[in-house]
Amino acid sequence: MKRLLGLSLMVVAATAAAQDRPVPYWASIKSGKALMRTGPATTYPGTWLYMRRDLPIRVLKLHEDWRLIEDSEGTRGWMRRVLLSDTRTALVAGSSPRPVHARPDESSRVRYMVEPGVVGRIDDCGGDGWCHITIGQREGHIRVGNLWGVAPDEVVD
Predict the structure, then answer these.
(1) Nearest to residue 35, comparing CAs of 91, 87, 83, 86?
(2) Cis upstream peptide for 40 (omega within 30°)
(3) Looking at residue 8, what DSSP letter applies?
(4) Mind listing the pLDDT tens digit for each residue in 22-67?
(5) Which parts of the chain fold into alpha helices (H)?
(6) Can you tell me the distance from the alpha carbon of 134 to that of 116, in angstroms, rounded to the nearest whole number?
(7) Of 17, 6, 10, 15, which is closest to residue 83 (Cα–Cα)?
(8) pTM exceeds cut of 0.70
(9) Which of 28, 113, 139 is nearest to 131 (CA)?
(10) What is the number of other CB atoms lying within 10 angstroms of the CB of residue 65?
(11) Coil vs helix vs strand at 11
């Protein structure tokens, strides 16, 4: 029992330490319900209730157990650290469907088209303008310019 408790505490500590890195950095919403507040405490009023797990956000500032975040629409507010995850996700940007290719190459076969607003998990961006994205059971490569949640020249392993 002590061993299991110790292991659980190490995992929690590792997650907390990962979110204490220099700002700004990308993260995602861990829970299916996450409340944004006007300030860094539960005494501040809630301004927005996010009901979408894995939604990418940008962490702009740290304050104890709270993070000042920004969403894809530019809305800013405070969220508790436990509601956030280091899992890299991205939102498909734009106003029309975007191609997801078989390889990180514009001339490669288009596997499928993805609608704006769809969220996928990012597991590899080489800094060459392409990211590998997984959306449900489908995967492929998409241009970084078609995403919100990855910087243009960012490398994601």
Answers:
(1) 83
(2) no
(3) H
(4) 999 999 999 899 999 999 999 999 999 999 999 999 999 999 999 9
(5) 2-18
(6) 15
(7) 15
(8) yes
(9) 139
(10) 12
(11) helix
